[in-house]
Design goal:
This protein is of the alpha/beta class. The chain has a 5-stranded parallel β-sheet, sandwiched between helices.
């Protein structure tokens, strides 16, 4: 597993990733961490997985809308949407995902390494390869073997953070996917955390979670 990011001289790790089910609070915690680090005088850069890393984005979006009738937009409590993409669990789609996730892992490797060579103190990733692997049934042996391949290809963050959440509460904040899929996601993130040694931050108030995250990104 690539751990080339290493701890930084600033007292904080150089590479942090945030993962978790939709509605877990990633955007809130990324903004809080960025503010805290910049208050320390650190140069911070954000990598957004879908915008900066994912490959064949146009084809993936068009397919989800045309084939699976996925609704567009981001779900809000006052305007829920019905997304159909990563929650479509047919065998053919699983095969397609394995190819796409491999492409994304290779892209992530390049993007992260390039960013870490730039004049920056801390890189924060808004989602990581972990979020794609959590869409697989990691209780199955072949899926775990595939996950280990992806983990070996990608740089390991100094603080790989999984934000845990109660599925019903997460869906209330961001109503896009069915509750049963969010429950599956929570279990899958737990399996992945055990497999890869990720940092699971339990649910709590935004302030409490922010303090836990800040402690996790301090160089040890």
């Amino acid at each position: 597993m690539d751990t080339s990011n290493g701890p930084g001289p600033s007292g904080f790790v150089r590479l942090v990733s945030f993962s978790g089910m939709d509605g877990a609070g990633k955007s809130t915690q990324i903004a809080a961490l960025r503010s805290a680090l910049e208050a320390e005088g650190l140069r911070v850069r954000i990598i957004t997985f879908w915008d900066d890393v994912a490959r064949l984005k146009g084809l993936r979006e068009a397919s989800s809308h045309a084939i699976f009738k996925s609704e567009k937009g981001v779900g809000r409590p006052d305007a829920p949407v019905n997304r159909r993409d990563k929650n479509v669990r047919s065998a053919p789609m699983t095969v397609v995902r394995l190819g796409l996730y491999l492409l994304d892992a290779l892209s992530l490797r390049v993007v992260v390494r390039r960013m870490l060579r730039s004049p920056v103190d801390c890189v924060i990733c808004d989602r990581y390869c972990y979020d794609e692997l959590a869409n697989l049934d990691l209780q199955r042996g072949p899926a775990r073997l595939y996950a280990r391949l992806i983990l070996a290809l990608t740089p390991r963050p100094g603080a790989p953070i999984i934000l845990d959440a109660v599925p019903a509460e997460a869906r209330a904040r961001k109503p896009e996917y069915p509750l049963d899929f969010l429950e599956f996601s929570r279990q899958s993130y737990a399996h992945l955390a055990a497999l890869a040694g990720l940092i699971v931050v339990p649910p709590g108030s935004p302030a409490h979670v922010s303090r836990t995250v800040l402690d996790a990104v301090r160089s040890r």
